[in-house]
Design brief:
This protein has about 210 residues and is mostly helical. Helix content is about 65%, strand content about 5%. A 3-stranded mixed beta sheet has the order 1-2-3.
Length: about 210
């Protein structure tokens, strides 16, 4: 059996990981939150009023690039992906070796032994054929679970930060490729405060 099928597995795994990370970038700071976050009590971002609303924004590109929890999760996900790739390669290589051994030595087996061996190899070939979907599903499931934990941590912190500090009416997101606005006044930027607070919170949690 050729390695073309497993090469497809590796390409899909890489695509899944990439798309999962992109998915984080395009999400808004809205939705369900988790309570219990610690808040940066020293926050002093200026309050900017637009049409009577207090508005701020967070650069999520910067946030995810410098948030230590996000970086640790990315490292863990890459390790998991590599583990799945190694397992898949091992299964393919072992099957290829056993199949070649059968081609060389099968003539020395009885007809009953040959039939049993061929049935075993057929079942293993079918299993390897479905390995692509299994590995992709595992990686996607892990990716979604980790993304959810990351987003919940950010949602919760932003909510608690807002309640205990500025009480903005709207907190927008800003990204390089998917920002809903063409321009934002830099005085509305609270990215550094959110980032510092998140990293401090994560640092304290790791100590516990």
């Amino acid at each position: 059996m050729e390695n073309n099928k497993f090469n497809k597995i590796l390409l899909i795994c890489n695509a899944v990981l990439f798309l999962g990370l992109v998915g984080i970038y395009i999400l808004h700071f809205t939705g369900n939150n988790v309570s219990g976050s610690k808040v940066n009590a020293a926050a002093k971002a200026p309050v900017v009023k637009e049409g009577g609303l207090k508005v701020a924004y967070v650069n999520t590109d910067t946030l995810l690039a410098k948030y230590q929890y996000a970086k640790d999760l990315e490292t863990e996900l890459l390790a998991f992906k590599n583990q799945q790739e190694a397992y898949g390669k091992q299964q393919v290589e072992k099957f290829q070796k056993d199949y070649q051994d059968y081609l060389k030595n099968g003539a020395n087996m009885t007809l009953t032994q040959q039939q049993a061996k061929e049935e075993e190899l057929k079942k293993r070939a079918d299993k390897i054929g479905s390995l692509e979907q299994e590995l992709t599903a595992k990686i996607m499931e892990r990716q979604m679970a980790e993304n959810t934990k990351l987003l919940n941590a950010i949602f919760a912190y932003v909510r608690d930060y807002n309640e205990q500090n500025q009480k903005f009416d709207i907190i927008l997101r800003k990204t390089f490729e998917n920002s809903p606005t063409l321009y934002m006044n830099e005085g509305m930027d609270i990215t550094e405060e959110i980032l510092n607070g998140l990293n401090e919170e994560y640092k304290n949690l790791k100590k516990d």
